[in-house]
Amino acid sequence: MKILDIPKTDILKKMREILGNAVHKVTIAVPDINDLQDLHLYEVRSSVNVKIMCNIDPSWEDDAELLEELESLDNITIRLYEDRDRLLIDRDGEELLFSIVGSREDNNLVIYTKDPKHLAKKSKFDGDDRFPYPYVFKPPSPPDDFSSAAQVITPLKKEDAQENVYCQYCGMELTKGDQFTHSC
Fold it and tell me: In this structure, what DSSP letter does residue 41 have?
């Protein structure tokens, strides 16, 4: 078995190539907002909906300026993602590149596919947005302290057409009304 060290620059170059073929929707995850500069997001068609997850430190002037520039584009949505553990691009549900960042700059585990069977399982990698209310909050203590939130991800059964949400602490199935008020 041969292990290849794939540098981050090569991964970002491939992501830029994939992004150039986007038609409808693209999901991107990068460790830092500055990595987005290598993707040339200004060249993406305005009809393409781009969702981005990255680490942003608004106290740094460069991060704040870049965030402001990207938010000025109507087709781009940016969400804070504090973990610096992955590089990901999912183009139109037809092409996926997923990389787990290694301990060194040039050591990344990379998965690239256009296979429809692989793409059907992609939600395991980039978060699962099938749930109408994906976040369940821990009961606040003290009151008004909503600092702890976690995304609930549970596998769906093929025969189970309804999507259910479960408490991440006790495993209890939550009804629509219980999703924000449940306490274990």
Answer: G
Maximum separation of any 2 CA atoms in the chain, in Å = 55
- Please tell me whether the peptide bond between 140 and the residue prior to it is cis, using omega within 30 degrees of 0: no
Amino acid at 157: K
- Residue pair 63/33 in contact (Cβ under 8 Å)? The answer is yes
Digit-coded pLDDT (tens) for 25-63: 999 999 999 999 999 999 999 999 999 999 998 788 998
Angle at 103 between CA 154 and CA 7, to 5 degrees: 100
Query: pTM score, two decimals?
Result: 0.64
Domains of the chain listed by start with CATH number = 8-126 (3.30.870.10), 128-184 (no CATH)
What lies within 8 Å, CB to CB, of 180 at 6+ separation is: 133, 136, 137
- Segment holding 95, helix H or strand E: strand 95-101
- Phi, psi angle pair for 13, to nearest 5°: -65, -45
